[in-house]
Amino acid sequence: MKKYLIVLLAVAALLPLSHACLSRTPEAETPDGATYDPASVTLEIDCPGMEPVTRALDPSQEKAVHDLNVYFFSKQFPDDIAEHVFSDGNTSRVKVSLFPTNYDLYVIANAGRDMGEISREKVAAYSATVGTEQELTRNDRLPMSARQEVRITGNTSLPVSLVRCVARLELSLNVTEALKGHLLLHSVQLCGAARSCSFFSDNAPSETNRLDYPKQTLSGDSFNGSYYLWENMQGVNSSIADQKQKNRVNAPAAATCLHIEASYDGRKADYYIYPGANATSDFNIRRNTTYSLQVNILGISEVDTRVSTTELSVTPFPATSYAPGETAFSTLSTRSTHNPDGLFYLTYSIPQGGGTLLIDGAAHTPGVPFLFAQGGGKNAQIAYTQQGEGPARITFSLTDTYGFTIDKEIGTTYKIPYQPIEASLSDPGTATVGVPCVFYLSFSEPNYAGPFNVKYELLEGTGSLTSTVISRWSSGTTVVFDKGEQVRLGFFASEKGAVRLRFTVSEQNGQSKTVEQTIRISGKSVRAYASWDITGYEQHTMLDSTERTTYRDPCYLNVYAELSKSVSASTTVTVELHYTVDHRGFYGDTYTRQVTDKVSVSIPAGQSSGSAVARQYCEYCYIDNESYPHVLVIEGDRIEPASGEDMTRIVSASCSDPNIDITY
């Protein structure tokens, strides 16, 4: 979390440059947001300004956030997305509800669309591509991102500082008085800008993944312009010891440079200036950074480069929260190179919290600058004390003698250290559709005597909930209890399957506890039975006989299905029959055969029994007298149960009401 002030003298090819100045200022920061239970999180979105001086956009446009894609990924379950929020309205404050745990937070700003739920890998590897500089500032907005690790333990406001994915390059070009009328400026062009950018990792494009901005025609002896460009991290060439060696020969193939075309008394001159963190070996263009190049052309083949850096950092407070009256300590550091006479003035403010701040044990008036450091650098102890509860936010501004300002912010939360809420649900055991399932919700908090709010949510399944304090507790509503207690609950399920209930218990100190219960609901149980009989129309032979002169034709093998109680829906019972058919026919057509049949019996809604005909046949008949001893006069069948087996067996049963289970 650094900020830089850099003074650089640029490198030229032919004509000399007097004094060139480069200032580089990463504005983003990632403070640790203070969190505590309950898990209702408000993201306070901020975008520090890019300074100073000339811009293609004004300060409000550079800081404008038109839409946000926010992703939380749980560290406990790395393959799951915990939460995705898209906001194209209120982009300065986003609220989200999370379970207390550790998360990786990713924010993509000004994507121009709802990116939807995507995996951690795709978010971490997210990149964007442009074809022109204008696409970077389309609709007067800049692409931004933020990534930080957060621990959610309760309700909190989480500061999130967005980082612009682009750098701004400002060029101020002047011809010295001695060369005016001899040296003419013709054009300037930004070459080798990155075409695409990875939002959450260093961006180092290949030589083929770059683009040149359009050439700008110049006239006169001066030029001032600004460019926005993606980050381009091309590294350091440590073999360059002199600024004059920072040229096209020694530069990385994919490095970004400014090409200035000029003429001197009819001769063409080309200047290739490579921005970076220093005037010699560094070829990195970092995101969220302003590079200001002030180039004065003095004469032929003369380039003068000097580098001065200033860095400001502040360590996060070590604890996520503090008790009112407790002092939080941090360290504020500044470091400057190649600027032994530099004077740095510090100003601080406390936008949130209203506490008191000591810097190295001394009190200073907020908003009033004082001399903080001179020359190389300084470390100072920060001591912050706040008496009331709530978030605390402190901003620091370091200004050099040229008026260039670096901003830094730190924050934490003050709260009374309460004991956590204790909440639990008893095991309801087994449950049946339409039968109340009884269980108990218990909640309390040590050393707390105030009321509790209990919110009930039916997350899965259907049914109604009753309790001892409310006859019908609707999902999504909250009931207030004067104190902690054990509440008797009854759930009436309207269909079988899984039912999932959630109860969120909260109290006046801002704490909450969530408990869930999953109940397996079975259908109403109805027993099915099967039986059989044989009926028919009795017939008589025409001849007198002493035996079997009576038979039935037609004859019916009937199957019956019966339920233990009537149900409100139709039921189908499939019965398997095992029986023996004894056949007698004329001309010796006689046999005995084992038969297995399946018959479906329908039971109408509202009734408890039904029947079906399994087989229709005619019984055979013999006569036996002096004239016709044992003579077959009617051919047909006789049916008997198979030996040693039950004649009927239910093999399946189903009801059109899915909440009724038919057993057999």
TrEMBL record:
Pfam families associated with the record? DUF4906
Per the record, the domain of life is: Bacteria
**Which UniProt keywords are given for this protein, alphabetically ordered?**
Signal
InterPro entries named in the record: DUF4906, TraQ_sf
Keyword Signal recorded: yes
- Which stretch is the leader sequence? 1-20
Q: Where is the DUF4906 domain?
A: 223-295
Output the Gene3D superfamilies linked to this UniProt entry: 2.60.40.2580, Uncharacterised protein PF12988, DUF3872
Q: What is this protein called?
A: DUF4906 domain-containing protein
- What is the species of this protein? Alistipes indistinctus YIT 12060
